[in-house]
Design goal:
The complex is a heterodimer of chains A (169) and B (105). With 169 residues, chain A is an alpha+beta fold. Chain A is built from 4 helices and 6 strands, in the order ββααββααββ. The two termini of chain A are 29 Å apart. The two termini of chain B are 23 Å apart. The chains are: A alpha+beta (169), B alpha/beta (105).
């Protein structure tokens, strides 16, 4: 894992919004063993930047959503192939954290990113039959529940998934 | 070592030794835990050392629960704040038996 040089697509000022202040930029390869260190680097940097006022719940939500996003890149966009580029860029914009996750693999359907279904268990607390439980499909549901806004774009050969978090909790 | 197993009269007490229970260890956990489940004993899985869990690990836990076939025979012990939150978000709290106090397993 190394610090990314330059400004990857998707992290520049777009649509007239303030560009914000870069918190961290990370380049690593599509290997599941790289995900934990990258997420911990992001969270450590965020904690150092915001100080003790940053709610733990917020830190948890960032770690969950970004982990699931990067797992999806490795397991789906790159179909488990190692050695392909993954970038994470985190920017502070006002009271928000904006995290861009970039890859050069196969983009997921926008419908899955933006809507999808409820989690595999369902949307109420009724007891479930074990046989009806899914062993997968929890990732996008977790991303949509933990990020305050989710969007996806294809820019200059990169898929750019953008996750926004309200840092005030 | 990923799993530390202690046999008691009532159950296999299994301590998960990974600080991060994520996609990098989920497959190996599933392989080892399914082998344990095949012994047919009640399993108590101590998650007290797990600071972070992801959806891949949840999938592995669901696979183990389905193999055991009875939510009363797989008890998750001592979930940390983040683990509890992910179970709440996915509503898997309605599926797994989760016990906060280690002595109450």
């Amino acid at each position: 894992m190394e610090a990314a040089s330059g400004s990857p697509p998707g992290m520049q000022d777009r649509g007239g919004r303030p560009a914000g202040r870069t918190l961290i930029a990370l380049d690593f390869s599509s290997d599941l063993a790289e995900v934990g260190p990258a997420i911990e680097a992001l969270c450590t940097r965020l904690r150092a930047d915001r100080g003790p006022g940053l709610p733990l719940d917020c830190l948890d939500r960032v770690a969950i959503a970004v982990t699931e996003a990067v797992n999806n890149v490795i397991e789906h966009a790159y179909a488990g192939r190692r050695g392909r580029p993954v970038r994470i860029g985190a920017t502070i914009r006002g009271a928000s954290l904006v995290v861009a996750v970039l890859d050069q693999g196969v983009a997921p359907p926008a419908s899955l990113v933006l809507r999808g279904t409820h989690g595999p268990v369902g949307d109420d607390d009724r007891p479930r039959a074990l046989s009806s439980l899914s062993e997968g499909g929890y990732g996008w549901s977790l991303i949509r529940q933990t990020a305050d806004a989710v969007s996806i774009a294809r820019i200059e050969g990169w898929t750019v998934l953008t996750l926004e978090f309200d840092l005030d909790g | 070592m990923l799993l530390q197993v202690t046999e008691t009269e009532e159950a296999d007490r299994v301590v998960l030794l990974a600080r991060r229970f994520d996609a990098s260890v989920a497959e190996e956990f599933k392989r080892q835990a399914l082998a344990l489940a095949g012994r047919g004993r009640r399993m108590e899985l101590d998650l007290g050392g797990v600071e972070f869990i992801d959806s891949s690990a949840l999938g592995a836990l669901v696979a183990v629960l389905k193999a055991i076939g009875d939510p009363g025979r797989l008890v998750l012990l001592r979930p940390t704040r983040q683990v509890r939150k992910v179970f709440d978000l996915t509503r898997l709290t309605s599926v797994f038996r989760i016990v906060d106090d280690q002595s109450a397993g």
